[in-house]
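A student in our group prepared the protein record below, which I am reviewing. What it holds is a sequence and that sequence's fold in token form. My question to you is simply how this chain folds and whether the tokens agree. Do not assume that whoever made the record got everything right. I have pasted the whole thing underneath without changing anything:
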Amino acid sequence: MTKTQPLARGHSPAHTPAYTAAELLSVMASRTLEDGQTVFAGVGIPLLAATLAQRLHAPGLTILFEGGVLGPFIVPGELPPSTNEQRCTRRANMILPITDVLLLLQRGYVDIGFLGGAQIDHYGNINSSFIGDPAKPKTRLPGTGGGNDIASLAKIVVAMKHEKRRFVEKVDFITSPGFLSGGDSRAKSGLVSGGMHKIVTDLAVLGIDPQSKRVRIDALHPGVSAEQVRDNTGFALEIAPDLHETKPPDERELRVLRELDPDRLYIA
């Protein structure tokens, strides 16, 4: 690691080995995945997390790209810049029309979907459409892509930097539904499966309270306090009864991760 690469927040010289915030996000996101799952993964940290899980603790995990690729093999050092790129099809089990991929999702064959967004609120709803009044937005964002379909039908994992401006009390627009207004509102709206599962940040791992469906702190990264997480969040955060500290990325995880991305395109 060069001196110019930023360390993860909470890291101190006492913690070895050193790692960047992006490496922390990749490792912690990979740990949310289980063997046998089928995972929608976009490029960047989601693909690194899914591939790292495959290499270390989930050899039966299947990666799925929205463009139609099922079960590709990601070659270390040759990370694709886009899921519509040929490197995404190496040794794939199948290459399907996008409508068939979404059909798999509708039939319940997809367990986890990685999503991102400009805003997330206290019920895990995601905004990737507008900032400000949707009728007259201050900023237009990329929009949904397949995000709404994925969030409506699969469990969602988000990996992002923890910033107060992104964790807001109420999103300006619900692009991808979390638990809507909490409680059983998601099920009553007709979304009987899926929903926000984990939000992995550079400060903590956030989960969902099983009753209220509000976002809460499940785990803190080494050297980070609950107060620090709350100070960087725009809504009140409860703490899980079994709050614990995450184990820092170990040497094996970091070695495999750095083999996947030797040019540090995503982990710097």
Q: What stands out?
A: The first strand starts at residue 38 and ends at 40.
